[in-house]
Amino acid sequence: MAAHLDPTFEAGRDFVMRGIAGPVVMLNLLRFRAVADYSATPGLAPDAPISGAQAYDLYIAHTQPHLAASGGELMLLGEGGPWLIGPAGERWDRAMLVRQHSVEAFLAFAKDEAYLAGIGHRTAAVEDSRLLPLALLPLPGA
Questions:
Q1: Is residue 4 part of a domain?
Q2: Which of 21, 29, 56, 94 is least crowded, fewest Cβ atoms below 10 Å from its Cβ?
Q3: What pLDDT score does 4 carry?
Q4: What residues make up the domain containing 112?
Q5: Is residue 70 domain-resident?
Q6: What CATH number is given to the structural domain containing 131?
Q7: Count of domains in the chain?
Q8: In-domain check, residue 11
Q9: Across residues 46-66, what is the average pLDDT?
Q10: For residue range 60-83, what is the model confidence (pLDDT) as tens digits?
Q11: What pLDDT score was predicted for residue 3?
């Protein structure tokens, strides 16, 4: 099975074309490598090997100030595991919800050079991922 680590051109185009007005919440599902692979960004590698989860913690620490400066927020960070309802044997190590006040703000954040300087921690950490943009809906009966 192919890993999903970055959006395709088509997926990015479709995301923009959805025309989401207002806030967007990104649902992230993450599966980590047992040992982080810094071969693509050796300059970011710690002195000793670390786990994918530890590398992702470095990514979050690097990302938080840039996310906040862009008007975004990390709403939820949770430890995953096997599904209660879903395919047997499939697992996600973490789930995150990240909110941006608009698609445009998300795209600006994702292109920010200072943010991108630390993205190698994410690359080193993640074995597979899913990213689902969510358009907020009003609660029925509210």
A1: no
A2: 21
A3: 87
A4: 23-135
A5: yes
A6: 3.30.70.100
A7: 1
A8: no
A9: 98
A10: 999 999 999 999 999 999 999 989
A11: 81
